[in-house]
Structures are given as structure tokens and as C-alpha cells.
Amino acid sequence: xxxxxxxxxxxxxxxRILTALLTKKFGYQVMAAADGKDALNRxxxxxxxxxxxxxxxxxxxxxxxxxxLKAIRQHRPDLPVLMLTSQDDxxxxxxxxxxxxxxxxVKPAEPAHLEIALQNAIRLSVLSQELTxxxxxxxxxxxxTDLIGHRAGLAESVTYARKAAASQVPVLxxxx
Length: 176
Known about the structure:
By secondary structure, this protein is an alpha/beta fold. 49% of the residues lie in helices and 14% in strands.
């Protein structure tokens, strides 16, 4: 299953260009958001693992990139965020990295740079998640969030398992 990239940019032309590049050339799936608030809503509505990385524009109406980055870090600190801007400003780049962005890319993004930055961000995120899982496994503290899978059937089973875990009744889950 290809990785899904969330593009949050208020410019519809930029979203279409990035969507075409990411889907046709790099083979990613893409979700699009018109501003930071829309992006945050999509992240909160998704399951862990549904979104592999975010391309987040700095200057957007409703909720700008830095405000959205701060909210994303609170909700999903493990999700790699790459900040996009049309201003080649070192101060903005430093602030983005200090606030938790994985990388800072000046628009128009050079395809090779964008591809490498996304691959590295996703790879680092996967390794970080694996390390966290191994630590929890060693401590004997695995949770439902450690399950790997994206199918609707698994999500439904996990929902039932969470409800069952909250009770004192023994439960046996069988079948596919």
C-alpha cells in the first residue's frame, strides 16, 4: 500500500501541481487541505498510519502553517511535517525546524529534493515508531496502537477489542 501524503496549501494550483507530482511521478497517495485547520481536522479524523507525512505551507488563511504545526505536534508528534514556503528566508526555516518540522522546502519545490526529503522523513518516522514499539514490547506494555494494519476489518476488530478490554468479561476473537 503506497504512503499517503497530506498537502496543506491554500493555493489550489500549487495543490494540483504537488498532487500530480506525488501521485504520478513518486507513486504516493495524496490528501489535500486548503488550510491548516482543514489539515488538522483530517489528521484528527484519520487513524495512526493513514497519513505518512505532511507538506504544510507556511502562509495560509484561517490557520497558518506554524499554528498548524504546533497543533499537529500536540496531536501526532511522530508525524513528519515538511514546511513549504515561497519565501527563501533563513529565519523562517530555523523557526520551522525549531518548532518540530522535519524539513523546510522553498517553492517551487525541486522534484528530486522533494522526493528525497519525503523518503527520508517517512523512513525516519517508521524507524522511530519501530523503536518505540520495541521499547514497549521489552517493558511488556504493548497497546492497541502497536497493531499494524490499515484494513477496515482490523479497525473494526480493534474497536470491539477496546470495548472488551474495558470490561471484566473474557472474550475470544476468532476468524479473519
